[in-house]
Amino acid sequence: MNNVYDPIIIESSIIVIGLLSFILSGVREYMAVSVYNVKDYGAVGDGQTDDTKEMEDFMDKELLHGLITNAKRYSIANPYPSFVTNANISNISLVDSKFFHIHIFESRNITFDSIGINAPGDSPNTDGIHIADSTNIQVANSVIGTGDDCISIGPGCTNLTIFNVLCGPGHGISIGSLGRNVDEKDVIKLKVRKCNLTGTTNGLRIKTWQSSLSRMKATNFLFEHIIMNTVYNPIIIDQNYCPNGNCPGKDPSLVKIKNIKYRNITGTFASLVAYKLVCSEAAPCEGVELSDINLEYNGKDKQAKNATSICVHVYGSSNGNLEDPKSPLLRSEG
């Protein structure tokens, strides 16, 4: 049985703290939007009391076809919008989750606007927003600082937009890792625009597993008007991803990366590698465009005058001030 959902709007300055599961589902087609006060269901809203049970009771009884009101501080789970269609979620703050703060799975047509996420920079696996197997998702006008990826994108995503997001601390904005499991679906059409990354380990990263188990595509990505502030690794494609050296073999990745555009990327970086594009020997990257990239080194090595670049198995084009004689930028296609 397929569920069809009416628009859901969740807003009005709710602060969410902790770890559990917040699943939005089951709203009947064409149901009118109503207004509810979750305090009528026993929620306290003082930012200290655990209101998870009361919020779950509210969602179970009202099927979440409305607007959560009252600008209070409700302590509940990290939201997992799974199997949701047509939702607008705005003006929510999330603090110190033990894992993903927001995990979007098997959903479509969701807009996140004015989201605040805050976790210590040294807290592991505290991704801000993770998106997987979802379509038409937008994250806009948000501030995210964590100990892991500010936003991470998994397999099976189509038509995602990330706009005007401030990221840092954290590991930046990441696509992947991809290809680890059998039958992973393609990632198609991503736009990341007008974002600012400050003090992050990585900036814009695409990572696929070495010895991948899936033949899949990651294609049609646009990264545009991005500002880096002391980002350690600003631009990365890593198709030899193998954390802790636990890969089953040494075979090249089978994930095909194609039509990736980096435009107007400016600011400063802290490593000696301005960009690192390491693609697969078995499936070289194609259609990579680097345009108007202006990144200046401001790391600790004050004697370093010229940063380097690394490009392996990459086909595409570039303009601007990127050329490094030690590592030719891109091989032309054809």
In terms of per-residue confidence, which ranges show pLDDT below 50 for 5 or more consecutive residues? 1-34, 63-71, 323-329
Q: Distance N terminus to C terminus?
A: 49 Å
Radius of gyration: 21 Å
What series of H and E elements makes up the topology?
Answer: EEEEHEEEEEEEEEEEEEEEEEEEE
Helix content: under 10%
- Overall shape: globular
What percentage of the residues does DSSP assign to strands (E)? Answer: over 45%
Could you give a short account of the major beta sheet?
14 strands, parallel
What is the total tally of β strands? 24
What value does the average pLDDT take?
A: 80
How would you describe this structure to a colleague?
- GO terms for molecular function: polygalacturonase activity.
- The structure is a single chain.
- Helix content is 3%, strand content 50%.
- The protein is globular and about 60 Å long.
- With 334 residues, the chain is mostly beta strands.
- The N terminus is likely disordered.
Keywords:
24 strands, globular, about 50% strand, mainly beta, 14-stranded parallel sheet, disordered N terminus, eight-stranded parallel sheet, about 325 residues, 1 helix
What is this structure, in a nutshell?
By secondary structure, the protein is mainly beta. It is built from one helix and 24 strands.
Question: Any chance you could write out the topology, listing elements then pairs?
Answer:
Blueprint: E1 8-10, E2 14-17, E3 34-36, E4 46-50, H1 52-62, E5 66-68, E6 73-75, E7 85-95, E8 102-105, E9 108-118, E10 129-132, E11 135-145, E12 151-153, E13 158-167, E14 173-178, E15 187-193, E16 196-198, E17 202-209, E18 217-231, E19 233-241, E20 256-269, E21 273-278, E22 285-297, E23 308-312, E24 314-320
Parallel strand pairs: 1-5, 1-7, 2-7, 3-5, 4-6, 7-9, 8-10, 9-11, 10-12, 11-13, 12-14, 13-15, 13-16, 14-17, 15-18, 16-18, 17-19, 18-20, 19-21, 20-22, 21-23, 22-24
Active site: 171
InterPro entries: Glyco_hydro_28 (IPR000743), PbH1 (IPR006626), Pectin_lyas_fold (IPR012334), Pectin_lyase_fold/virulence (IPR011050)
Keywords: Cell wall, Cell wall biogenesis/degradation, Glycosidase, Hydrolase, Secreted
